[in-house]
Design a protein that fits this description.
Blueprint: H1 4-22, E1 60-62, E2 75-81, H2 86-101, E3 107-112, H3 120-132, H4 135-148, H5 155-163, H6 169-176, H7 179-195, E4 202-208, E5 217-223, H8 229-248
Parallel strand pairs: 2-3
Antiparallel strand pairs: 1-5, 2-4, 4-5
Helix pairs in contact: 2-4, 2-8, 3-4, 3-5, 3-6, 3-7, 5-6
C-alpha cells in the first residue's frame, strides 16, 4: 500500500543507503579516482595488469619508513574494509581467491575502517564477532546480507543478524560496546591514519612484529590506484611475493 508513511520510510532507507555508499572514500567521493577499486565488478575479469607490471607510486605506495622496529614475524596482508562499503562486498570473492593462493605461512587479517559515524556499528560488529569466535562463518555472510536485505543500520539490527548465525544476541551487544572494542577501534584507526588509508577496500602488506598471534602489523606497502577488483587481488599477491623476497635477503 502506497501510503505517505510508506513513502517516507522508503525515502529514509534510500537516504541512509546513499550516505553509506558515499563513505567508501574518506572524502565522500566515490568516483574512480578516489576509491581503490571501481564501483562495478563488471569489468573486473577483463581489466588487470600483466604480472610484474605494477608501479610504485601508481598501483601501490611504500608506507614503510626507516627507523621502524625490527620485525621477526611472518608476512601479513591486511584488507582494510567496511561492511557498509559496497565496493568491499564486490571485492570479497576476489580476496577469498587470493587467500586460497597465498603461502600457508602468510597471515591474513581484516581491519575495519570508519569514515563516518554511520560506519561505526559495522566496525563494532566485526570486533564483537571476532571476540565471540564467529567471524569466519559470518564475514562473507554479512556482506551478502547487506547486498540482499540492505540496510542493516544499527547494532540491534546487526545483533539480530549474528544471532541467526549462532551468536548470543546479548553477548554480541556486550562485546560490541565493550571497553576492549573501544580500545581496538582507537588503535586500528590510529594505525590506518598512519598508513594513509582514505578509501576501501585497500590492501596493506608487511610483517608482524613477532610470532605472537596478536602481534602488531609493521606495514611496508599499501594499494593505491587500480583498475579492477581482479587487479587489486593480483596486486596483493604480487606485494606478498615482493615482501617474502625482501625477507629472504636478510
Amino acid at each position: 500500500m502506497n501510503t505517505p508513511r510508506a513513502r517516507l520510510l522508503t525515502l529514509a532507507l534510500l537516504a541512509v543507503g546513499l550516505l553509506l555508499t558515499a563513505a567508501c572514500s574518506a572524502h565522500n567521493d566515490t568516483d574512480g579516482a578516489s576509491v581503490s577499486a571501481p564501483a562495478s565488478a563488471g569489468t573486473a575479469a577483463t581489466k588487470s595488469n600483466k604480472p610484474g607490471a605494477f608501479t610504485e607510486g601508481k598501483q601501490y605506495v611504500r608506507i614503510g619508513t626507516t627507523g621502524q622496529p625490527a620485525v621477526s614475524g611472518p608476512v601479513v596482508i591486511v584488507e582494510v574494509f567496511s561492511y557498509a562499503c559496497p565496493h568491499c562486498a564486490e571485492f570479497a570473492p576476489f580476496f577469498d581467491k587470493l587467500r586460497e593462493k597465498l603461502p600457508k605461512d602468510v597471515q591474513v587479517r581484516y581491519m575495519p575502517a570508519i569514515f563516518s559515524a554511520a560506519w561505526e556499528p559495522y566496525a563494532r560488529a566485526f570486533y564483537a564477532a571476532r571476540q565471540l569466535g564467529v567471524l569466519s562463518q559470518t564475514h562473507d555472510a554479512l556482506f551478502q546480507a547487506m547486498q540482499q536485505n540492505y540496510p542493516l543500520n544499527s547494532l540491534d539490527d546487526l545483533a539480530a543478524f549474528y544471532a541467526r548465525h549462532g551468536a548470543d544476541q546479548q553477548k554480541f551487544l556486550d562485546a560490541a560496546n565493550s571497553k576492549q572494542t573501544d580500545a581496538q577501534i582507537a588503535a586500528d584507526q590510529a594505525l590506518e591514519k598512519s598508513w594513509g588509508i582514505d578509501a576501501t577496500p585497500m590492501l596493506v602488506v608487511g610483517h608482524l612484529q613477532d610470532n605472537a598471534p596478536d602481534a602488531p602489523v609493521v606495514a611496508d606497502y599499501r594499494s593505491a590506484d587500480v583498475s579492477s577488483y581482479a587487479e587489486l587481488g593480483e596486486l596483493g599477491g604480487w606485494l606478498v611475493k615482493r615482501e617474502e623476497a625482501q625477507a629472504a635477503k636478510h
